[in-house]
Known about the structure:
Order of helices and strands: EHHEHEHEHEHEEEHHEEHEHHEH
Bound molecules: pyridoxal-5'-phosphate
Shape: globular
Helix content: 25-40%
Strand order of the largest sheet: 2-8-7-6-5-3-4
Distance between the termini: 27 Å
Radius of gyration: 21 Å
Amino acid sequence: MSEPLYFDANATARMRPEVREAFGEALLRVSGNPSSLHGPGRVARHMLDEARERIAAALGVHEDELVFTSGGTESNNLALLGALRPLPTRRGLAISPIEHSSVLGPARALQRMGRPLRLLEVDASGSVRLESLRDAVADRPTALVSVMAANNELGTCSPLEEIAAALDASSERPLWHMDAVQALGRVPLDLRALRVDLASFSLHKVGAPVGIGLLYRRHGVVLEPLMYGGEQEHGLRPGTENVASAVAAARAIELAVAELEQHRQRLRSLGSLLWGELVSKLPHLRLLGLPIEHVRRLPGTLNVLSPELEGKVIVMRLDLEGVAASAGSACASGSLEPSHVLKAIGCSDEEARSGLRLSCGRETCSEDVHRLVEILWRTLKSRT
Ligand code: PLP
């Protein structure tokens, strides 16, 4: 069977050749534990420190502000639970309703422990309503706000500057946690300029191995660890560090940052081509989120609805045709529940089970787009 057409870049990306090479070399080189005082330990420590420095330079932050984790899910949990557990329960939390389940989950857990949780309003495109954010921070002691940089299902980017300004204008500025998992390498991100306090990254999304993520924690932000053990990662993430993956991640982030503009333009053209071809062949399709050319659209991500399309069924049929796509988020695609993201932007339960997410990545080319549209057209036609 030929290589599948891969339109699921938001779920994960293939490891980049340059990263595979760096990873392989690091695996061969590392033989000690970075906490050990002997030679092999010192080599491992040096490799880890160097990887952290390179990542900090690429992201424009200080190396002490970075905590290596296992991925986006852990970073999100550490950010929310770690920042809020030490604070009095009356100090609330406000999140957008379209956050990933790894933000919604800890937020709900904190709510069960008695902490006020407010769901911000989003408009039909999935953008947070700034009025609702201003209200949330004005009318109660809100300790933390979690609003993601770019939504994984819809491909809507948040109005980041406006959010930063709204938070700055509040009398008691809450911490801002940003899930930046889908934004890295696809959207310009200046954590310092945006005055972000905590930001989560998942590095397999940018071509690093699975099993490594990052939490950015601005200097001065107090966090409590989720697990207890050694003093690794400032005591915030105990356990022997994943040195070779950190080295691979440094390479992946450097490449993602250096190629941002070029990659973004490519994804943007692919997204426009894909949507143009889809509507010309399947005019009844509806594009969810922002218009395709909107500046706040995550380039290369589309979520479409069609009357005869049921997301999960179509994903299975596309799979039989050699196309990898997704119905909503990869983490929820085994579930029969309607997508909470689509429901939050006003879709009915039926519609919220029907979204087909197509996300382009580094390896996608225009030929893939033509083939996908042809296959999708055939697949849908055979159902009518
Ligand atoms: N946050 C967002 C926006 C995501 O899209 C994902 C994964 O798709 C995650 C968090 C979780 O990342 P990980 O798979 O590394 O745990």
